[in-house]
Specification:
single chain; 122 residues; mainly alpha; 5 helices; 3 strands
C-alpha cells in the first residue's frame, strides 16, 4: 500500500517526511545517506533506523514529493553510480510550504495561549 501525502487540507505530515523535505529544501540533489546524517544532527532523529528511512523515501517517491536526480556536478562517477540521489518535485516544495505554514500557525497559537514564549529559552 502506498502512502499518499495530500498537501491540500490533508492531515499533518509525519515528522520524518517533513524533515526529509527540509533536508532537500536547498535544491541540491542529495543521496540517502547524506540525508540520514543531516537528520541525525537534528533533535529527535538521532536513532533513525535506515529501514524506516528508506521505506519513507520509497513512499515519498511513489507519491511524487521527491524524484530521483542525477548526482551534482563534480561527483566522482563511480561514487554517483552506487548512490541514488533525490530532489524535491514541485509537489514536494508545495507540500513543504503548506506544512511549514501549518506548523507556524501552531507555534503562533501556542504563543498566544502562553504555552510558548517569544524567546527561545522560555
Amino acid at each position: 500500500m502506498t502512502t499518499r501525502y495530500d498537501a491540500d487540507g490533508g492531515p499533518a505530515l509525519k515528522p520524518l517526511v517533513f524533515q526529509i523535505l527540509l533536508a532537500l529544501g536547498e535544491g541540491e540533489p542529495r543521496h540517502g545517506w547524506s540525508i540520514i546524517r543531516d537528520l541525525q544532527d537534528r533533535d529527535g532523529f538521532a536513532d533513525i533506523m535506515p529501514g524506516h528511512f528508506y521505506r519513507t523515501l520509497r513512499a515519498m517517491l511513489a507519491s511524487g514529493l521527491i524524484e530521483e536526480a542525477d548526482p551534482p556536478a563534480g561527483i566522482d562517477d563511480e561514487e554517483g553510480e552506487r548512490r541514488r540521489y533525490f530532489r524535491l518535485t514541485r509537489d514536494g516544495v508545495r507540500t513543504a510550504r503548506i506544512e511549514a505554514r501549518r506548523l507556524e500557525a501552531v507555534v503562533l497559537e501556542s504563543r498566544a495561549k502562553r504555552l510558548l514564549s517569544s524567546n527561545r529559552r522560555g
